Amino acid sequence: MNTKELETTDRGIRYDRPLGRISEDEGVVLLRLEMPGVAKEGLTIDVDGDLLVVTGVRAEQENSGRYLVRERPRFNFRRTYTLDETVDRNRIDAELSNGVLTVSLHLKEEVKPRKIEVKGR
Fold it and tell me: Which residues form the domain of 18?
């Protein structure tokens, strides 16, 4: 799975790229993206052919006073990943917990590692 680097603009909208990491555990590729302050209603995850696209927005929290410092304003974000043929497109799950989005990409059964039993005497 590869990340695409051309993520900065689309139709005049600037997108930020949330930080992430990718690991594999027992036949599941885990994509974790940091997104503090993002609600699940602000997320969209699409699979379009070989592309997995995570987009969304972090809404700015309402403030009754005036800002003195504003380091975490509203922002749009997008990350695009190229899926290879080993990922089962019908078994992709996502969970948002404690400001981290985890996307589980299950590998097709035929590509999962397996042990071969040695027979003989």
Answer: 2-61+68-111
